[in-house]
Amino acid sequence: MSAFQWLNEQFSFFGLPVYWSDFLGNILALATVWLALRRSLVAWPVQILGSVFLLIASLNVHLGGNAARQVVIIVSAAWGWATWKRSREQEGTINVRWANWNERGVLIAAMVLGTAAFGGLLKWTDASFYPGAPWWMVLADAWIFIGSILAMYSQARRYIEFWFVWLAVDLVGVPLAIHSELYFSGIVYGIFFVMVLMGIRDWASRSKPQGIASPLEPAVQVESRDESRSN
Hints:
GO molecular function, one term: nicotinamide riboside transmembrane transporter activity
Shape: globular
Keywords: Cell membrane, Membrane, Transmembrane, Transmembrane helix, Transport
Distance between the termini: 74 Å
Number of strands: 2
Number of helices: 8
Strand order of the largest sheet: 1-2
Radius of gyration: 21 Å
Membrane topology: Multi-pass membrane protein
Strand content: under 5%
Pfam families: NMN_transporter
Protein name: Membrane protein
């Protein structure tokens, strides 16, 4: 373990004390979001490695919910990697779509019930922040855990809504990371916010039904009909 002790050491990042584990994990997390935006399979192994670093960082500052989140992300990323790989083999690309209302209802119910249940578990076991931490802090920690699971699930299912779930996680993650003195995580959450907006726009533009023609398609169709008649 001594060979990896440096991951729990701090360095100065523009005057802010930053753990190496927090720094490296979040750099890889940023790379993951960028690769997901490009719908690249490489996003998944990069996410797994980044989560290993962030797991170390979370344990270092006693964030039980966030640490558990990283373990689940690692497992979910392995499943998502296999899902995307199978999809690309079958369809030739990674197609994305909006979830239907039933699927959205399941996601919303899981958000509310999952956060409440996991928050209660963290509170009961004193596994979040410190013994006797206020409910709002514990629920924030729990939401980041549950929200990340749902985002990973939605990403693996190729729902465009996964970007919105990450957006909700980021809105809680920024103040929580800063409060926990994971300053670099707070900065990265802010960058995530911008990248998530880019992801929503990009994936939404790719979700248009294939039957909707572009302005150039009618001319192409006319040319093909003319060629068939001449033959």
